[in-house]
Amino acid sequence: MATRRTRRSLTTFVVLLVISIGLLAFDGQASSSVSSGIKSVGSAILSPVVGVVDAVTRPIGNFFAGAINYGSVEAENARLRALVGQLEIQDGTAAANRRQLAELMALKDLPFLGSLTSVTCATTSINVSNFAATIQIDKGSSSGIATGMPVVGSGGLVGQVVDTSAGSATVRLVTDGQTRVGVVFGSSTILGIANGVTATSPMSASYVAPNSHVSKGERLFTNGLQGAQYPPGIPVGTVISATTPINAPQMDISVRPAADLAHLGFVNVVLWEPAS
Amino acid sequence: MSRGSLIRLALIMIAVVVLQVSIVSQLTIFGVHPEIVWLLPLAAGSLAGSEAGAVVGFVSGLMLDCLLPTPFGLSALVGASAGFGAGLLTEQGVLVGGGEIWWVTPALGGIGSMMSVLAYASLGWLFGYNGFFLVNLWIILPLTLVVGAGLAVPVWMLVSWSIGEHRPRRRRHRKVQQVAW
Fold first, then answer.
1. Is B28 within 8 Å of chain A by CB?
2. Residue range(s) defining the domain that contains residue A182
3. A264: in domain
4. Whole-angstrom Cα distance, residue B159 to residue B15?
5. Tens-digit pLDDT string for chain A (276 aa)
6. Does residue A269 sit in helix, strand or coil?
7. Cα(B108)–Cα(B104) distance, rounded to whole angstroms?
8. Neighbouring C-beta atoms of residue A143, cutoff 10 Å
C-alpha cells in the first residue's frame, strides 16, 4: 500500500517536473504560445489583486523599509541638506544656466529622442524579484505601449518593455543580467555590446577588440544598426574602466549606466518598436 | 482532500503569492527582500505528504511565475521539488512532525526556504541565466532563513487548517531501525 502511494507521488512529481522543464525550455521563444498564454491569463487574474494589496500595504512597507534602513535614510538626509546648501549658493549662476538651457532645448529639443514620441509613466514598483532588475509602470497596451519598446529616463536608457497588460507594463532595466544593448563608443566607430550584470553592479561591455581606443569617461550610445533593439543615439552609460588583459580576445570594460536608476519615479516609454 | 480543503488551500496560495509580490518585496535590506512563498510547499509536503507538497509547490510557483519577470516555469520547478522533498522526508520518518518537537517546524521552514532559494539560483544558472549567482545571495539566503523560520509556525497552522483531517502516513521508528541496521 505504502509502495503504491509512494509510486503515485513519484509519478505526480515527475509529471510536474517535466511540465516545468518544458515551460522553461520554451520560455521566451517565439513559438511558445502556450507559456505566454498561461502567463498572460495568470497575470491578468492576479495583477489586479496585487495592485489593490500593493496600494493598501505600500505605506506599511515604506514604514518598515524606513525603520530597517534608518541609518541610510539619516545619511541620505544629511547628504541632501548639504546639497541644498550648495544649490542655494549656486542659485545665482543657476538662473543664467537655466536661460542657456532653455535656449538649447528650443534649438535641439530632447537631444537623444529626436523626433521619436514617448509616453511618460509613473513607476509603481521596483525589483519585485531578487533575481531580476525590473520596474513596473502604470501604463500599458491601452496607452500604446508594446513589448520591445525602449524606456528612457533622466540621462539616458533605462531599459526595455518586456511584458504588457492593458494598464501596466514591466520594464527590464539595463542592469539586469538578461539585458544586451548594441552600442557605439563616443563619436568613434568602435562597436560593442553593453551587458547588464545585476541590479547593484556596473554594466560590462563585450566584443571590443583588444587595445581599442576606449578610455575612462567615454560615453556609450545605442548604435541603431539594422535589426537593433533600440533606436540610435540614446546614451547608455559611461566607461569607468577599460583594460586589455594579457592574451585576452577582447577588452575588459566596466560601464556606469547613464540613467539615474536609483531614482526612477517617472520614465518615458519611447513609442518605437524594434524590427521583428 | 475535500473540495472545501482545496478551496481553502487555493485561497491561501493566492494570499501568500500576492503578499510576496506586494508587501514582502518592499521590505528590502541592501536591495534584496526575503522569499516567503517557499513555505507553502514545505508546509503542505510535511503535513499532507509528498504528492500534495509537489502539487502545492507547482501551482504556487506557477502563480509566482505569472507575476515575475523571471524564467517562466522556474518557480514551479523549485516549488514542486521543495514540496516533494519535504513530504518525502516526513513520510520516510526522517523529519519528526512539527507538533512533536517545537523547533522542527521553524527549522524546516527556515532551512527549506533557504535551500529553495539556492536551488532557484542554481537551476537558473543551469538554464543559462548566469546573473543568478551574481545577485546578493549572501544576504538573500540568511534573510530568507530567518524570515522563513519566523513565519513557519503561522504558515503551518494555516495549511494545517486548510487541509483539515488529511495527514500523511509516516513510517515510525525509522531512526531506531537505521541505528540497529
1. yes
2. 115-270
3. yes
4. 12
5. 567 777 888 999 999 999 999 888 887 665 567 777 888 788 888 878 887 887 777 666 666 666 666 666 677 777 777 777 667 666 666 665 565 455 434 334 556 777 788 888 888 888 778 888 899 898 998 999 999 999 988 788 999 998 888 888 999 999 998 899 999 998 788 999 999 988 878 899 999 998 888 889 999 999 888 778 899 889 999 999 999 888 888 999 999 999 888 888 888 899 988 876
6. strand
7. 6
8. 18
* Stretch 218-237 of chain A: residues touching chain B, C-beta under 8 Å: none
A54 touches chain B (CB under 8 A): yes
Give me the residues of A, 144-183, that contact B with CB < 8 A.
162-163, 170, 172, 176-178
Q: Is the CB of B44 inside 8 Å of chain A's CB atoms?
A: no
A72 inside domain: yes
Q: Decide if A138 is inside a domain.
A: yes
Q: Is A241 on the interface with B (CB under 8 A)?
A: no
Are B121 and A131 an interchain contact pair (Cβ–Cβ within 8 Å)?
Answer: yes
Total domains in chain A come to: 2
Positive or negative torsion for Cα B83, B85, B89, B91: positive
What is the SS3 assignment for B71? Answer: coil
Question: In this structure, are A77 and A187 located in the same domain?
Answer: no
CA distance A60 to chain B (A): 8
A53 and A136 in a single domain? The answer is no
ipTM of the complex in this document: 0.83
End position of a domain, from candidates A41, A74, A106: A106
